[in-house]
Amino acid sequence: MCSLDLIDIRFLAHDDEDLAVLDDEIGRQFYHYLRDEGVLDIVNPVRKNHALKMSRPLPRHLKDEKVESFFQAVKGQRDRAMFMLMLRCGRRVEEVAQLTLNVLDFKHRKVLIEDGKGAKDRVVYLSHDAHQALMAYLRVRPPCRSRSIFLVQRYCRVSNL
Question: Would the pTM count as exceeding 0.70?
């Protein structure tokens, strides 16, 4: 195969994943050639059917009108506060479900996330609308001995959603 053919083949690859598979195949064939010609006496390091792991594209953000229509469909102060914390503050579902009253710092508008992803603690700041939604929920939250912020109808901690 001459270099012009290789350039043509690489040009025809549709995307990075096709190109990675093509490069993998070219490398494998090159080692076979070197072994067959007696240049190298090694085991081919490029395994067959071994493709490079390609990164996934980042998720696309929601447009403002989609977010507004979503929040119009959300019923109740509790659900609105939960979704605001996830959307505006980048909280994970489990992190929101496990929030307790003692991790809130309303004066500085921040929340301590304990045992988050990777079992690490981190501080997350509240956006204005997430702060307002959380305050609105806490005003109507039923009195309860539980330190959990979000309660189900029986006034117990929200389990993993």
Answer: no
Higher pLDDT: 18 or 142? It is: 142
**DSSP secondary structure letter of residue 113:** E
Q: What DSSP element (H or E) covers 63?
A: none
Q: What pLDDT, in 10s, does the model give residues 61-73?
A: 778 888 888 888 8
Residues 39 and 101 in one domain: no
Q: Is 151 within the bounds of a domain?
A: no
Q: What is the number of structural domains in the chain? A: 2
Of 69, 67, 54, 73, whose CA–CA distance to 130 is shortest?
67
Q: Which two tokens stand for residue 21?
A: 């598979």
Residue 85 corresponds to which tokens in the numbers above? 């914390």
Picking from 57, 73, 100, the residue at the C-terminal end of a domain is 57
Per residue in 65-120, pLDDT (tens digit) is: 888 888 888 888 999 999 999 988 888 888 888 888 888 888 899 888 877 677 77
In whole angstroms, how far apart are CA 17 and each of 10, 20, 36, 54, 149?
A: 12, 5, 29, 7, 45
Report which residue type is found at 153.
Q
Q: Let me know: does 46 contact 28? Beta carbons within 8 Å.
A: yes
Give the CATH number for residue 125.
Answer: 1.10.443.10
Same domain, 22 and 79: no
